[in-house]
Amino acid sequence: MKRILSFSLTAVMAFTAYSQELWSDNFESYNIGNLGTQGGWQNDGVTASWTKVANIDAAHGKSFQLASPSSNSDGAWKFREFDPAARTEGNDIFVVEYDYYTGTNGTDAVGAVQIYNTDDGYATLMEIGYSDGALYLADSFDGIYLDENASPNTWYHIKVAFDSSTGEIKARVNNGEVLTYDGYSAGYYPNEFDVLMVGATTAGFDNISVTATATDPFLAVSNVSKKSFVSVYPNPTADVVNIKSDKKVASVSIYDAAGKVVKTTVETSINVENLANGSYIVNINYVDGSKESTKVIKK
After folding, report:
1. C-alpha distances in angstroms, 19 versus 33, 94, 109, 279?
2. Which residues contact 27 (CB under 8 A, 6 or more apart)?
3. Is the separation of the CB atoms in 40 and 81 below 8 Å?
4. Do the beta carbons of residue 286 and residue 249 sit within 8 Å?
5. Which among 226, 250, 274 is the end of a domain?
6. Residues 194 and 236 both lie in one domain
7. Nearest-angstrom CA–CA distance, 213 and 191
8. In this structure, what CATH number is given to the domain that contains residue 87?
9. Contact 86/164 with Cβ under 8 angstroms?
């Protein structure tokens, strides 16, 4: 036991010693009220009253709180840039940590964190959100569930590591198991932390940090596993939605926010160019009788 403890301590010390903080925010120095441009935060489609500095609970003090209305069907972003070039050469693993308050969300609604590379057409390197009772991790092509039984109005600690040299992503919720995911192509460096809000949703964020390191931050954690589910991409999309799955697809139906079927097909590449901008549910029926649903944003 002593040997295992020593190994764990060494791993943690190695990560701490060689990690570089690129940006962090705990909102404690901000004024209560609209977040606005405090701390260098910027807007893309966000009405000022949707994002606030508030005391969600006593334990967290001041936090970022969002409340997006149902009229926000096209999606909006509050974002903060950081500079990956500030890291030491070789520190190619980017670690994002924050406290995430799931809040509540309505149909086709989400409040999520997105990590972007804005130098290559806003490549979504990862998205972490809460939808339909589950915490998920995704990128522009695919994703995994982090916790399929997450609770609303609950704080979770999220830790995600993106290895820019391999594209691999590792993630952990609270002190749970570490999940691995073969993410975006190697060679991309994140430079923007975004909070995405779509539809009627509330959520909170606190104690955000982005660091760069050469050492796997989960090195001392042995219970690593991998999960996967259907890939629907690109998302958001302007014209075509593609579906990739290990199972054979029998049919696909697309529903609008009112629950009306707007498209049905047996194809796995679907033209949605004529659909109005907004959120849609894609229902996938497999030949084996099973079904799966996922959300797509038409932009």
Report:
1. 33, 9, 35, 39
2. 39, 53, 61, 62, 63, 64, 206
3. yes
4. yes
5. 226
6. no
7. 15
8. 2.60.120.200
9. no
Quick: pLDDT tens for 125-138.
999 999 888 899 98
Q: What is the pLDDT of residues 18-43, one digit of tens each?
A: 579 999 999 999 999 999 999 999 99
* Residues 88, 85: Cα–Cα separation, whole Å: 8
As a whole number of angstroms, the distance between CA 115 and CA 145 comes to 17
Full domain range(s) for residue 111: 2-226
Total count of domains within the chain: 2
Name the DSSP class of 62.
E
Same domain, 170 and 289: no
Predicted TM-score (pTM) of the model is: 0.71
Burial class (CB in 10 A: 0-12, 13-18, 19+), 266: exposed
Do 56 and 244 contact (CB within 8 A), yes or no? Answer: no
Give yes or no for a contact between 265 and 251, defined as CB atoms under 8 angstroms apart. yes
Paired sense of beta strands 192-198 and 110-117, if any: antiparallel
Per-residue pLDDT band for 5 (boundaries 50, 70, 90) equals very low
Pick the more confident residue, 236 or 224: 236
Q: In the structure encoding, which two tokens stand for residue 212, read together? A: 């760069």
Q: Which tokens go with 191?
A: 């430079």
8 A C-beta contact, residue 128 and residue 160? yes
State residue 272's pLDDT score. Answer: 94
216 and 81 within one domain: yes
Average the pLDDT over 191-200 and give the result.
Answer: 96
Look at strands 143-147 and 134-138 and give their pairing. antiparallel
> What pLDDT band is residue 163 in, cutting at 50, 70 and 90?
very high
Distance of alpha carbon 79 from alpha carbon 13, whole angstroms = 31
Q: Of how many residues is the chain composed?
A: 299
CA-based Rg of the chain, rounded to a whole angstrom?
19
- H/E stretch holding 298 reads strand 291-298
